[in-house]
Amino acid sequence: MPILDDRNFEFFSHSPDQTRRLGIHLGGYLEPGDVICLEGNLGTGKTTLVQGIGQGWGTLDPVTSPTYVIVNEYRRPSTERFFHLDAYRLESALDAEYLDLDRMLVQGPMVIEWADRIKTALPDEHIWIRLSYSALEQRIMLLVPQGKRYESLVENLRRKIYGVF
Ligand SMILES: Nc1ncnc2c1ncn2[C@@H]1O[C@H](COP(=O)(O)OP(=O)(O)OP(=O)(O)O)[C@@H](O)[C@H]1O
Ligand SMILES: [Mg+2]
To answer: Is the pTM of this model over 0.90?
Structure first.
C-alpha cells in the first residue's frame, strides 16, 4: 500500500473528541454505496471514529460497539440506513460474502471495523483508514482512498479540516 502519496491524508488526533470530529466531517459526505474500511489494534479508536461518522451522517440513535451482532444498522428520518460492521468475529472473507454487503450498500453507506480480516470480500473502491496508537491520548489515522470518488472525498475532507493552503 502506498503511504507517501499526496492522495492520502494523515491525521493526528490528540483526543477522543478530535477523533469523533474527524468522523463527523467524514460522515457528512457519505452516500449509499460508500465503504469505509478501518484497520487498527484494540483500543486505537475505531469505534470512537465510527461514532463520529454516524453522527455526521445523521443517525437518530447513538452508535455503539456491535458486540453481540456482526452488523448494526442505524436510521435517519429517510429510508436510508448506515451500516456498522465488526468483522472481528468473522472467520474469513467467505463469512462476509454470506452477509451480502451489496444488498446493504444499496440502502446506505457502510463502515467496517477489522476490515483487514475480510479484505477479499470488499469492493475495490473504498477509503482505507489505518489507525495506530501513538501515545496515551494520541492516535495516528492514515486515510488511503481507492478510486476517484474517494480521492476527491478525502481531498475535500482535508481542506475542510485544515483549510486550503
Ligand atoms: N485520540 C483518541 N482517539 C480515539 N480514542 C482515544 C483517543 N485517546 C484515547 N482514546 C481512548 O481509546 C479508546 C478507544 O476505544 P475504541 O472502542 O474506540 O477502540 P476500538 O479500536 O474500536 O477497539 P476494539 O478493537 O476493541 O473495538 C477509548 O477508551 C478512548 O477514550
Ligand atoms: Mg471497536
So the answer is: yes
| Residue located nearest, by CA, to atom 25 of ligand 1 | 42
Question: Which residue has the CA at smallest separation from atom 12 of ligand 1?
Answer: 43
Residue owning grid cell 478525502: 154
pLDDT of 164: 60
Residue 126 CA to ligand 2 center (angstroms) comes to 19
The order of strands in the sheet holding 35-39 is 9-13, 138-146, 126-135, 35-39, 110-113, 81-86, 71-75
Helices then strands (H, E): number in the chain? 5, 7
120-157 confidence digits (pLDDT tens): 999 999 999 999 999 999 999 999 999 999 999 999 99
Nearest residue (by CA) to ligand 1, atom 16, is 45
